[in-house]
Amino acid sequence: MILAVLFMTTVVSPFINAIYKPKLRFKQTQQRTVQKLWSEAELRVAACVHNSHQALGMIYVLEATNATRTSPLHVSVLHLVELTRRGTGLLVAQIDNSNVQASSSEGQYGSQEEFETICNALIEFGEEYKAVRFDTSSIVATYDTIHQDIYNVTEEKRANLILLPFHKQLSSGELVTTNTAFCDINKNVLQAPPCSVGILVNRGLRSLSTATMSIIVIFIGGPDDREALSVAWRMASHSATKLHLIRLLVSGTEVEEGKVFQNDSSEVLSTEMDSVMQKELDDEHIFHFRHKGLHNNDSIAYSEMELMLETGEETPLILNEIDKKGCDLYILGQGSGKNYTVFQRLLEWCDSPELGVMGDILASTSFGSNSSLLVVQQYTMERKSKLRCRSIYHTNNISDEIL
């Protein structure tokens, strides 16, 4: 018995540690952003849809990413179906290019006709662009926990970007709420996703085979804005797209970069250092874009505008001036301006805080814009660590209650 224990301690444990590396999966997740993706690497996107109308909007955005043989596109379409009766969430169907017949079990949980319409739209998209491959799955779960299933499928597919539909849909020229539960799903997914996330507000995007697409990127600074520019940069290589990057130089208020939770001088210094580092990363990303993209492509334009922040009333005015230029799609970071005191106060009054301050203004009906909107949030380690701390705290509280 002693020899067996010694053997298990000295041989079995190191052997298991050698073949089982749970941290490897976590390290791979750190690279799941569009910004860190090589220009010739495969872009892997997990597109979540509730109906066929949302699927068409996703397809038009994916079409603009310009999939080629050197830079292919892999799309995993997740058809989200609410589980309205007792049971556990499950993945009820998987469809790829070679098999387009839905599983018979899917009809028990969702609309078979809706599912087939989504598949047919993807088939047409795949036939037109040979560098695109796709697979379709239906996730059946309660809306309160369906974001966990999205996380699991996204990690399994090794996606770089999750695309989510906005909870409002265009009807008679205005955005009308389809289901408030869709908004809660988007907020839950944004909490701690395994990769970057984009929320699409579709105001009538069209296929690039029949029309051109004018894109405007509003850049203030931060990781989310750099990710938004990286997504738009891939779209700029398409022959039917035109990209205009507008950098807003904020002045008139003090910057509060990072999280506002410092309690001593050391944390204040750390926040100031992070502010300087973020500024350097922004300048480097903009310089790289202007040097490599602007001078090699006539369809790319760059301009700078000054944004004076005192009370926040200047923000709609500057956005209204930008909107006069006209575009089909706005792309901006979800955290645009969140590190400024004025924007933090404005965020409390937003109708759709998941879009950020700038995105909420552009998506509001009162603003009067007819352009679609893609709001991007870049994956960061902070969100993952925050979720882990929250789960540990919640588990400890449950344990204390049980004791």
Provide keyphrases for this structure.
403 residues; alpha/beta; Rossmann fold; 2 domains; two-stranded antiparallel sheet; 42% helix; 23% strand; disordered C terminus
Task: Offer a quick outline of the entry.
With 403 residues, this protein is α/β, with parallel strands linked by helices. It contains 12 helices and 13 strands.
The class by helix and strand makeup works out as alpha/beta
| Count of folded domains | 2
- The CATH homology group name of the largest domain: HUPs
Mean pLDDT: 81
Largest sheet: 11 strands, mixed
User: What fraction, in percent, of the residue positions are helical?
Assistant: 40-55%
SSE string:
HHEHEEHEHEEEHEEHEHEHEHHEH
Strand order of the largest sheet: 3-4-2-1-5-8-13-12-9-10-11
Radius of gyration: 23 Å
Could you name the CATH class of the largest domain? Alpha Beta
Shape: globular
Task: Give a written overview of the molecule.
The radius of gyration is 23 Å and the shape is globular. The strands form two sheets. It has an eleven-stranded mixed sheet, sandwiched between helices. The chain is an alpha/beta fold. It is built from twelve helices and 13 strands. Strand 1, helix 3 and strand 2 form a beta-alpha-beta unit. It has two domains: 176 residues, HUPs (Rossmann fold, 3-Layer(aba) Sandwich), CATH 3.40.50.620; 169 residues, HUPs (Rossmann fold, 3-Layer(aba) Sandwich), CATH 3.40.50.
Task: Note the topology.
Elements: H1 2-19, H2 22-29, E1 43-49, H3 52-64, E2 73-82, E3 90-96, H4 112-128, E4 132-141, H5 146-157, E5 161-165, E6 168-171, E7 174-177, H6 180-191, E8 196-201, E9 213-219, H7 223-236, E10 241-251, H8 265-294, E11 300-308, H9 314-323, E12 329-333, H10 341-347, H11 356-363, E13 372-377, H12 381-402
Parallel strand pairs: 1-2, 1-5, 2-4, 5-8, 9-10, 9-12, 10-11, 12-13
Antiparallel strand pairs: 3-4, 6-7, 8-13
